[in-house]
Amino acid sequence: RTMTGRTMKVSAVVVSHGHRAELARSLPSLLPQVDEVVVVANVPGSAPEPDPRVRLIENARPRGFAANVNAGIAATSGELVLVANPDAIPEPGAVATLAAFMDEHPRCGVAGPMLLDPDGSWQPSRRRFPTVLGTLVRRTPLRLLLPPLRRQRHHYLLDERPTEPVPADWMLGGFLMLRRTMVEELGGLDEGFPLYGEDIDLCYRAAKAGWERWYVPQAVVRHRWDRLSDLRFLSRRTLWHWRGILRFVRKHPERLRALR
Questions:
Q1: What is the pLDDT along the chain (260 residues), one digit of tens a residue?
Q2: What does the alpha-carbon distance between residue 252 and residue 205 come to, in Å, rounded to a whole number?
Q3: Cα–Cα dist 38/55, whole Å
Q4: Which residue from 54, 47, 16, 15 is spatially nearest to 32, judged by alpha carbons?
Q5: Strand-strand pairing, 89-90 and 166-167
Q6: Beta pairing, strands 36-41 & 10-16
Q7: Residue 23 in contact with residue 40, Cβ under 8 Å?
Q8: Which helix (H) or strand (E) holds 218?
Q9: Gyration radius of the chain's alpha carbons
Q10: What count of other Cβ atoms lies within 10 Å of the Cβ of residue 17?
Q11: Is this structure's pTM higher than 0.85?
């Protein structure tokens, strides 16, 4: 058994891009729930306060999010790998709940919790795989005429708030439990995604390989949903988003035919 009493060891990987302050708030909640933690410090000012329980990888130069996650996974040994944003704060028992579910469901390759904003409001973190038309609305000025969170209820699954585990197409990558066997089979996260889209791509490749993705709402995590790519139509983040969209379509051209 692991030091946390589970049968499956859980390693956590956290990528910090100048998020020292966020780590000071999240690590105290995360550390007691996992067996090892690796923090990848992507730029100066990213490392947490020294802690013997935290292994630190400091990059000589910044790398993309997927590349950093892959490096963190390579530096860990758990059968389950938790990829967590530096501002994601798991409530007590959240990690154990996800790990127990994956232990009971050997074909579950990805498990995600219910995400709540710090004020307790619910986030639509479980979603359908994207379609071209829906993406054009979300990523262009069309969203001013057709607000996505009102007009794309099917994509965001806004009419579903399950209280028991349910299958998912994909889930936001702010806090995801991955099965190492699956990650190794798929070759890790695609490092060609600079920041956005790697979570959708991973879940899509997992689906094609026969791995299940599950939303487990009994596990609760507080996480601020900034929606930074929605604030402006042209910024560095929106360009990263479009690069991710184009890469996803090039890799999976069959999604061009998907309507729902």
A1: 676 777 899 999 999 999 999 999 999 999 999 999 999 999 999 999 999 999 999 999 999 999 999 999 999 999 999 999 999 999 999 999 999 999 999 999 999 999 999 999 999 999 999 875 555 445 555 455 545 555 557 678 888 999 999 999 999 999 999 999 999 999 999 999 877 889 999 999 999 999 999 999 999 999 987 654 444 555 566 666 667 777 888 898 887 666 45
A2: 9
A3: 5
A4: 54
A5: unpaired
A6: parallel
A7: no
A8: strand 212-222
A9: 18
A10: 17
A11: yes
Q: What is the largest CA-CA distance in the chain?
A: 55
CB of 245 closer than 8 Å to CB of 135: yes
Single out the residue of 34, 61, 33 nearest to residue 46, CA to CA: 61
221 and 88 in contact (C-beta within 8 Å)?
yes
Q: Residue 163 corresponds to which tokens in the numbers above?
A: 């209280």
Query: How far is Cα 111 from Cα 115, in angstroms, rounded to an integer?
Result: 12
